[in-house]
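REQUEST FORM: STRUCTURE PREDICTION
Request ID: SP-0412
Submitted by: Lab K.M.
Chain count: 1
Length (residues): 253
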Amino acid sequence: MTASDANAILERREYFPRGLVQPEGGYRFSMDSLLLACFAHVNRGQAGLDLGCGCGVVGLGVLLRQPGATITGVELNPLAAKAARENAANLHLAEKMEIEQGDVSDWRPDKVVDFVVANPPYRKLGKGRESRGEERKTARFEAAGSFYGFARCASVALKTRGRFAFVHLPERLPELLADLAEAGLTPKRLRLVHGKVDQEPRIALVEAVKAASPGLHVEPPLILHEGTGRNSGLSRQALEFCPFLVCNSKESE
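STATUS: Completed
RESULT:
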């Protein structure tokens, strides 16, 4: 690899998540995926899974934060799986990120892993505004599987004391916690994310551990925006927690 090639790769990585390939007309990843990538606790040398990986944004974010890890993305949609492979190659991370096409509800790994991340569909069918296109519907609604399917797949895949980090809606926390318990996963970390300090939380970041003792640590709330009107923007707290968000800040303009 030449020096210019190495510099080009570094530039692409610094530019992340801008420039990622996404299936035309399909579901577009959101800020939630970037927050999850920064919330997940991953150590050097660990192997993990990204369930329902889409274009690979969460798994790639994890690898950029912890280059010593490896990850396998599992994706039902063949176009999204193809985009994930292309994105991994473009960031020169293909040797650390493998993509498999499969349905989380019945897919199982060949061996256990240290961690699992997932940004599963948030809403049950018939709840909320319908999405145009089957791919968007599957990504946003539990059309192809429930959260329990993700939790069960994570539990089967994880080593004892392995971690499952996911992002979801605060309003669904009671049933999500019940699904985790049924799958043998114990919630250990919870962080609620608010749009502004005076607003209700919009998403919940959760980490569960396989075969762990009870005890949930609720972290300080994460406030995404500060200021008002034309002076509003991403908060310093949000940018420190997730540097990937700088692509959405006024500082990047």
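NOTES: The longest helix spans residues 3-15.
Reviewed by: T.R.
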